[in-house]
Amino acid sequence: MAILKIARMGHPVLKRVADPVPDPTAPEIHNLINDMLDTLADIGGAGLAAPQVHVPLRVVIFHVPGARIATEEGTDPAATAGVPLTALINPEITPLSDQMAEGLEACLSVPGLGGRVPRHTRIRYRALAPDGSVIDREATGFHARVVQHECDHLDGILYPMRMRDLSSLGFVEELRRFQGQEAAD
């Protein structure tokens, strides 16, 4: 197992469409996923895509902490178990509604910065698991946001490319510090 180096915005591996994985059960794919898990555990964050660790393959890992789901508006407190660490191979996303919501996003490949990004509020995603079985889930809220963010990496898209208003782009530390405050003149 290894902690991998994170590709940063501007690196060519983040600009290209990642290649499909022909065999999700291949040992090299399992090794990649294990290294990605080690890397994510080391650096923190909700997810990681293979292109972010310089591997142009359609593989993402993510998790959604229950505490994060509990903060969402309208969430049933009993439904806050979260989503355990999940690996998706060759994922496909289908929006289940035209409804979009803006939310603050940050990215390991755009260190220190964050911005408000519109995302579909309800999606369905299908992918292969590392054992070759099919994962078919619906997601809402932060779960949907994380999956869309990580899968964007597979198509050469970083979150600033999705932003409608670049004035919301800033250093995460400052955005959190002044969250909800208007700038004084």
TrEMBL record:
<dbReference type="GO" id="GO:0006412">
    <property type="term" value="P:translation"/>
</dbReference>
<keyword id="KW-0378">Hydrolase</keyword>
<dbReference type="InterPro" id="IPR036821">
    <property type="entry name" value="Peptide_deformylase_sf"/>
</dbReference>
<feature type="binding site">
    <location>
        <position position="107"/>
    </location>
    <ligand>
        <name>Fe cation</name>
    </ligand>
</feature>
<dbReference type="GO" id="GO:0046872">
    <property type="term" value="F:metal ion binding"/>
</dbReference>
<dbReference type="InterPro" id="IPR023635">
    <property type="entry name" value="Peptide_deformylase"/>
</dbReference>
<feature type="active site">
    <location>
        <position position="150"/>
    </location>
</feature>
<keyword id="KW-0479">Metal-binding</keyword>
<comment type="function">
    <text>Removes the formyl group from the N-terminal Met of newly synthesized proteins. Requires at least a dipeptide for an efficient rate of reaction. N-terminal L-methionine is a prerequisite for activity but the enzyme has broad specificity at other positions.</text>
</comment>
<dbReference type="Pfam" id="PF01327">
    <property type="entry name" value="Pep_deformylase"/>
</dbReference>
<comment type="similarity">
    <text>Belongs to the polypeptide deformylase family.</text>
</comment>
<feature type="binding site">
    <location>
        <position position="149"/>
    </location>
    <ligand>
        <name>Fe cation</name>
    </ligand>
</feature>
<keyword id="KW-0648">Protein biosynthesis</keyword>
<protein>
    <recommendedName>
        <fullName>Peptide deformylase</fullName>
        <ecNumber>3.5.1.88</ecNumber>
    </recommendedName>
</protein>
<feature type="binding site">
    <location>
        <position position="153"/>
    </location>
    <ligand>
        <name>Fe cation</name>
    </ligand>
</feature>
<keyword id="KW-0408">Iron</keyword>
<dbReference type="GO" id="GO:0042586">
    <property type="term" value="F:peptide deformylase activity"/>
</dbReference>
